[in-house]
Amino acid sequence: MRYLVTGGAGFVGSHAVLGLLDDGHEVVVLDNFSTGHRGAIPAGIDVHHVDLMDAAATNAVLGEGRFDAVLHFAAISLVGESMADPLRYFEQNYISSLNLIRACITHDVRKLVFSSTAALFGGPERDDPIPHDAPIDPGSPYGESKFMIERVLHWADRIHGLRSACLRYFNAAGADVAGRAGEDHRPETHLIPIVIDAALGRRPALQVFGTDYPTHDGSCVRDYLHVGDLATAYLSALTQIDERSVVYNIGSGRGYSNIDVIRSVERVSGRKIPWEAAPRRGGDPATLIADSDAFRRDTGWTPRLSELDHIVETAFRWREAHPEGYGL
Ligand code: UDP
Questions:
Q1: Where does ligand 1 bind, in terms of residues with CB under 6 Å?
Q2: Atom 24 of ligand 1 has which residue's CA nearest to it?
Q3: Which of 49, 134, 167, 281 could form a disulfide with 209 if both were Cys (CB 3.0 to 4.6 A apart)?
Q4: Residue 183 falls within a domain, yes or no?
Q5: Residue 246 sits in a domain of what CATH number?
Q6: What DSSP string describes 32-63?
Q7: Structure ipTM over 0.95, yes or no
Q8: Is 316 inside a domain boundary?
Q9: Which domain range does residue 139 map to?
């Protein structure tokens, strides 16, 4: 099969590219390189340096491609940032996706897998795990922007027959088990790489945002899924959408607090990590854990790499070996 991967130079997208290649597929990457890295794309892959906000350029890529499906990762995706600049999130995530969906319809690409998010279940203090049919209540403009795109996809199927899988995934983490790719955000805002950098002595004490949540130790609880498991989830989702569109939650089903993550990095690194309590970060729900039973039942998918210490170990190895990430 021949796939277009938008955002293929980003953290999750680049691991999906590896998963598709390992499975014997042909891959083309589209990325605007605003946050992605050339070095994250394996050699020999066709790359379009295109911004999805550019409707004509997007249309041209889809027109040339003869793609069996599109895997759509490209987005801006920081909850905290979206609380500070909501309109940028609505504009960029919505319009870029609209351009892509329109180009798929124009050029008769029949399938699209969309990276949605658990952030559309951002209710204040929710009991877990969250099934895919739980009420939608985004806690941030980021979550809302993803939900808007889910609704476009719903109508793109009903009226144009574009089949889609919306994968609402929880916290993607870890690094390629073979060490070919890892996580490199600038600046880094995600918990696991920040804790690892503290363990490696590359940053001062880290801050834990909020220690008064109604959780077992007061810090937020998240469901961490290894990016390799996420890549196989995309392949499994593609098998589901010949006849109908689907929406699934994708996670490990287990929740770990921010302080649990610090303990895990201490176990893996063998080092003591300094941290301090800090105020809550805007837009953070107390707990997000996925109920992925529907996806597991329908596809047979199961996470194999998502033990927390294994996630941390793969991330630690990559970060230790790449002090400059993918370089400048
Ligand atoms: N977090 C933290 N300190 C940091 C970075 C993140 O306490 O320096 C917390 C954050 O507030 C959230 C959790 O770690 O409770 C996971 O945040 P992350 O940004 O990694 O992922 P998100 O859940 O926002 O997708």
A1: 79, 171, 189-191, 194, 206-209, 220, 222, 258, 281, 284
A2: 79
A3: 281
A4: no
A5: 3.40.50.720
A6: --SS--GGGSPTT-EEEE--TT-HHHHHHHHH
A7: yes
A8: yes
A9: 2-172+224-250
212 alpha carbon to ligand 1 midpoint, in Å? Answer: 15
* Statement to judge: residues 229 and 115 lie in one domain: yes
Residue of minimum CA distance from atom 25 in ligand 1: 171
> Are 6 and 148 contained in the same domain?
yes
Same domain, 245 and 140: yes
CA distances from 252 to 170, 173, 227, 288, 289 (A): 9, 11, 11, 11, 8
Note the pTM of the prediction, 2 decimals. Answer: 0.95
Q: In a 10 Å sphere around its CB, with 0-12 CB exposed, 13-18 middle and 19+ buried, how is residue 242 labelled? A: exposed
What is d(CA 246, CA 150) in angstroms, rounded to the nearest whole number? 10
3-state secondary structure of 64: helix
Residue nearest to atom 20 of ligand 1 (CA): 190
Per-residue pLDDT of the chain (328 residues; tens, 9 = 90+): 999 999 999 999 999 999 999 999 999 999 999 999 999 999 999 999 999 999 999 999 999 989 999 999 999 999 889 999 999 999 999 999 999 999 999 999 999 999 999 999 865 455 679 988 889 999 899 999 999 999 999 999 999 999 999 999 999 999 999 999 999 999 899 999 999 999 999 998 899 999 999 999 999 999 999 999 999 999 999 999 999 999 999 999 999 999 999 999 999 999 999 999 999 998 888 999 999 999 999 999 999 999 999 999 999 999 999 999 998 6
Are 201 and 228 within one domain?
Answer: no
Ligand 1: atom nearest CA of 258 is 14
**CATH code, domain with 304:** 3.90.25.10
> In the chain, how many domains are there?
2
Q: Ligand 1 center to residue 171 CA distance, Å?
A: 9
Residue 145 shares a structural domain with residue 237: yes
Quick check: is 178 in a domain? no
- Asked, for residue 213, whether it belongs to a domain, the answer is yes
Does residue 142 have an active-site annotation?
Answer: yes
Q: Which of 3, 89, 94, 142 is catalytic?
A: 142
Residue 5 to residue 188: CA distance in whole angstroms? 23
